[in-house]
Every structure is written in C-alpha cells, then in structure tokens.
Amino acid sequence: MADTTRDEVLEREKARYGGMRFGSAFFGWLTATGTAVILTAVLAATGTAVGLGSEVNPNEAAEAVSENAGTVGVVGAIVLAVILLVAYFCGGYVAGRMARFDGVKQGVAVWLWALIIAVVLAILTAVAGAQFNILGTLNSFPRIPINEGELTAGSIITVIVAAVIALAGAILGGAAGMRYHRRVDKAGLGR
C-alpha cells in the first residue's frame, strides 16, 4: 500500500466537499447581519452615553450637526464602512470555517445571500407597500444614508462602495476561516 501524502488527501476531500456551500454561507450571512446590528447598537449606546454624560441640549446638537454636515457625513460613511467590513469579515469567517474548503467562494456566497435577501425585501416592499418595509423599521440595522424617493450619483456611489466593502470583508473572512482547517490538517496529516 502506497503512502498517501497530505496533498493527495486534501485534493480528494476538496474534490468531494469543495465549492460554494450555500448552507454555510447562509449562516455566515446571519452572523454578518447579527454582528452589524450589535456593532450599530453598541455605537448608538456609546453615542447616547456620551451625549447624556455631557448634558448636551438636543437643539444645540442638531444645530451643530447641520453646521458640520460634511464632517458628519464623512465620519458616518467611515463608521458604516468599518461596521460593514467587520460584520462581513465575521460572516465570511463563519462560512469559511463551516465549509472547510474554498474560503473565498464561501465569502462571496455570504455576500450573495445579502444581495439576494436585499433584492427580495426590496421587491416585497415595492409590492406590499411602505407599511411592510422591514428594513425601514429596524432602527438598529446600519443604514446607508439614502432617501428612498431620491437617488443621486452620490447615493449610488455610496451603495456601490458599501457593497464592495462588504464583499471584501466577506472574502477576507472566508479565507481566514478556511486557514484554520489548513493548520489542523497540517498537524493531523503531518508536513
């Protein structure tokens, strides 16, 4: 009986169990969504605590925000980008770790789940009306600052950048999740 090398074992396993696993990706998407909600809630709680601690008058705060709208917009965009990157990294990691192979494909599949669910919800909202706008009623979910009735070049660019950041986070997370299994295989199979 010939010795089986580590690479041969991995190739056989990958041939049988590799590829996109949409079940794993679904749980990755759930993780990404939950992480985004939690990070947004922590950020909102922190902002509220800071605001309450300094006894800021809400009218003065609103006036200061309107005077510094550009700065607030840039900071908000950066915060949204960080939340999306971290959340989708976590989602990609879960999918890559669950599926074991093809971590980058698992990350893409997590992102595809997000895209598919967003499109389905948009269609349902358009068909059923605004009273069933699920994402509009979730105040703790990170929102891209776009008015539903008004799409501008800036808002389209914002959506595209947010989608690219989420995709990058999911891919990086998927690759990191898969890497864990490579270390286990190396320890178990040697070399």
The DSSP helix count reads 7
- Tally of DSSP β-strands: 0
Radius of gyration: 21 Å
Shape descriptor: elongated
The chain-level mean pLDDT equals: 77
Helix and strand succession? Answer: HHHHHHH
In this structure, how is the largest beta sheet organized?
none
**Distance between the terminal alpha carbons, to the nearest Å?**
20 Å
Helix content: over 70%
Outline the structure in words.
- With 191 residues, this protein is an all-alpha fold.
- 80% of the residues lie in helices and 0% in strands.
- The longest helix is centred in the last third of the chain and has 37 residues.
- The chain starts with 5 loop residues before the first helix and ends with a helix.
Key phrases:
elongated, mainly alpha, 191 residues, 7 helices
Secondary-structure blueprint:
Elements: H1 6-17, H2 22-53, H3 58-67, H4 69-99, H5 103-128, H6 134-137, H7 153-189
Helix pairs in contact: 2-4, 2-5, 4-5, 4-7, 5-7
